[in-house]
Write a structure and sequence with these properties.
The complex is a heterodimer of chains A (140) and B (195). Chain A contains 3 helices and 8 strands. With 140 residues, chain A is of the alpha/beta class. In chain A, strands 1-3-6 form a 3-stranded mixed beta sheet, with no helix packed on it. In chain A, strands 2-8-7 form a 3-stranded mixed beta sheet, with no helix packed on it. Chain A has a two-stranded antiparallel ribbon with strand order 4-5. The radius of gyration of chain A is 20 Å and the shape is elongated. By secondary structure, chain B is of the alpha+beta class. The radius of gyration of chain B is 21 Å and the shape is globular. In chain B, helix 2 packs across helix 5. Classes of the chains: A alpha/beta (140), B alpha+beta (195).
């Protein structure tokens, strides 16, 4: 009984500690770029009937942390990539500075659209907790 | 290290910091930027100016190139209104800018109808129209999509809404997504005019 109580107290303390850390610890990002690459040979794989998905139909960005979308075409042929036509070897760097949902026509998706959700910088403790939780869930 | 050496070293450090700060202060594009930029594919269409509309005739000017149609009720009026505001904000510098609006609706957008539509926002905006195949070729060259959707007895289009920014040398430098305010176009046009 005593061990169980100690375990419970320990778990609650650890959870509170983690929550406090998530609320207080400033958010960092090693790079503000969210990079997507069309690898060499993608067109040939598509022509061979393979399904190749590179861009998700929803991309989440956060101002001040990950707010620059970078698309790169490493294939040998021009490709429609997200909102634009890209030549071989070309990159497209799109910065965002306002929180909003941006819709782009994109033939690569069944819906015909790609949505980029730009969220505001999580400046409050609660927003930091929510941001960390969401980021963790998306990573899983 | 002597005092003289130390002074030289400090001066070099201050200079490098200064140059770095100046480089960092360079204005940034609000639009998405292509690297390397590619030549903007040329096209020849019927212009609302009453003359042939050829993209290459605007070399030396910054060109804002948009695609849409005059029956568009949502995206196009906002885009054209944004262009009109940006041109006003640019003042005299607007003389070095040409806004081109190419229709995706060959059937309904005659040069006359298109002129009334674009001219209603700003008479400096020039529209372009042509045959179905001419317009389809331009869309293909620029990676623009336009899907015709039945709407009762009529129809509408779901079309790309981003705007191409073409520099004075005729290269596609950037792509502005729909929804940016006129100030962002002014910012980017000024960068292109300065570069």
């Amino acid at each position: 009984m005593r061990i169980r109580t100690q375990l419970l107290v320990g778990s609650v303390a650890a959870a509170l500690g983690a929550l406090t850390w998530a609320a207080v610890e400033p958010l960092h990002s090693t790079s503000r770029e969210h990079v997507f690459v069309i690898p060499k040979g993608t067109w040939a794989r598509r022509m061979a009937g393979q399904k190749v998905e590179i861009l998700p139909d929803h991309i989440h960005l956060t101002l001040g942390l990950h707010d620059v979308l970078v698309l790169k075409n490493h294939d040998d042929v021009p490709q429609i990539f997200g909102p634009t036509l890209m030549m071989p070897g070309q990159s497209f760097t799109l910065p965002f500075d306002r929180p909003a949902q941006y819709q782009f026509a994109c033939t690569a998706h069944a819906s015909g659209q790609m949505t980029i959700v730009v969220e505001p910088y999580p400046s409050t403790p609660v927003a930091r907790i929510v941001w960390r939780a969401r980021t963790l869930l998306r990573a899983l | 290290m002597t005092h003289k050496d130390l002074r030289k070293w400090l001066l070099a450090l201050l200079l490098s910091v200064g140059v770095g700060a100046a480089m960092g202060a360079a204005p940034a594009f609000k639009a998405g930027v292509f690297d390397p930029p590619r030549p903007a594919p040329d096209f020849t269409l019927q212009g609302t100016s009453g003359r042939e509309l050829k993209l290459s005739q605007y070399r030396g000017k910054v060109v804002l190139l948009a695609f849409g149609y005059s029956h568009c009720l949502s995206v196009c009026p906002i885009t054209l209104h944004t262009f009109a505001q940006a041109l006003r904000q640019l003042g005299a510098a607007a003389a070095g800018v040409q806004v081109l609006y190419v229709t995706v609706d060959a059937q309904r957008d005659t040069p006359e109808k298109l002129k009334i539509f674009v001219g209603g926002f700003d008479p400096r905006i020039i529209g372009g129209t042509g045959t179905e195949s001419q317009l389809a070729q331009v869309r293909k060259d620029y990676g623009v999509t336009a899907t015709r959707i039945p709407d009762g007895k009529s129809y509408m289009y779901d079309h790309s809404s981003s705007i191409y920014l073409i520099d004075r040398a005729g290269r596609i430098r950037a792509l502005m997504p729909y929804g940016h305010p006129p100030e962002d176009f002014v910012n980017d046009v000024r960068i292109l005019q300065g570069g």
